[in-house]
Amino acid sequence: MHNLRRAMIDRQHESRRSFLKKASLAGVGASLVGGASASTASAAAGAAGSGAAQGPVVVSSLNGREAAQRAIEIMQDGGSALDGAIAGVNLVEEDPDDITVGYGGIPNEDGVVQLDAAVMDGPTHRAGSVAALEGIKYPSRVARLVMERTDHALLVGQGAQDFAKMHGFPIENLLTERARELWVEWKETLSTEDDYLPPHDIDDENIGAIMQDATRHYGTIHCSALDPNGNLGSVTTTSGLFYKIPGRVGDSPIIGAGLYCDNEVGAAGSTGRGEANLQNLTSYLIVERMRMGDTPEAACLYACRRIDEKTKMARLRNDRGEPNFNVRFYAISKQGEVGGAQLRGADDRMIAADASGVREIDLAYLYE
Ligand code: GLY
Prior knowledge:
Elements: H1 3-25, H2 30-33, H3 41-46, E1 57-60, H4 65-76, H5 81-93, E2 115-121, E3 126-133, H6 139-149, E4 154-156, H7 157-166, H8 177-188, E5 221-226, E6 232-238, E7 259-262, E8 266-272, H9 274-278, H10 282-291, H11 296-310, E9 327-333, E10 338-344, E11 349-354, E12 357-362, E13 364-367
Parallel strand pairs: 3-4, 10-13
Antiparallel strand pairs: 1-5, 1-11, 2-3, 2-6, 5-6, 7-8, 8-9, 9-10, 11-12
The structure holds glycine.
The site of glycine has 12 residues, from strand 8.
């Protein structure tokens, strides 16, 4: 089996094992782990609250089990939603075994780990983000400093690193031996299909990267939280597309794409093919749909349909005419309802947590 695929599967199994251990230690019943059907996803996590806000509640991508637990604990200790979400994702950013985020993330085409992250704070409606940041283990913390200690919303590249250094962050080598070996293997088996595209038309089908190529991923962690005061906070952090063109920035650090948070309504964020999300500003769309009355799950499905409708290029559709890539969305309402959806895949899940424990719930989907 390809080393990369093995690494992803090992990571999923390890993560599940440690979650089950934690769940039993915390007294979280096995029935909570079983998850709800897509149609009951909102209600399942809605156990966390319907009607008035009843934080703490957290939603996260599936790699955020421990992150969600940490976020809940931070909020129970008096931290804000943003404190909790950032402390949660820090666990994943520093984890060398998660090869889609922070330290240990898969590098770009040149073997350099470049990180993207964004945070958004509900009560102040401020946001901060960093893109193509090198050598800093906790990009989400730097994004928060951009929000709190500058008059800007986004710093990139060397400027972002200099800013982090100014605030005392050490510059570290983020390329683990494991990630380096995977990168070398990829480089040594390069096909003719990469991210560079020759001139092509809307109808050209076999152009560029194969979206379903199992060796390229857009792994990321998104985490949104509602604290006991009814305030929202969100964070998305990633090492981005595996082996990306140096300087490529995905959706994660772009406010409205990788995340969005409106303290009167709800919060949303994404993982998956960032380009599709950038072209549709879908996290913003989800929050606006919730403002119009959609449940979180319905709003996420609406966003998936929007991406489906707006995917015009033949090379991005499979034989059945469906998008040949995936994007996942996670959302939480001001009332503490949660839900998520994805473009493709019938049996994927997300994390929902509240004071009673951490659950996996099904993601709704457009296509199997
Ligand atoms: N959604 C992560 C990325 O596209 O970089």
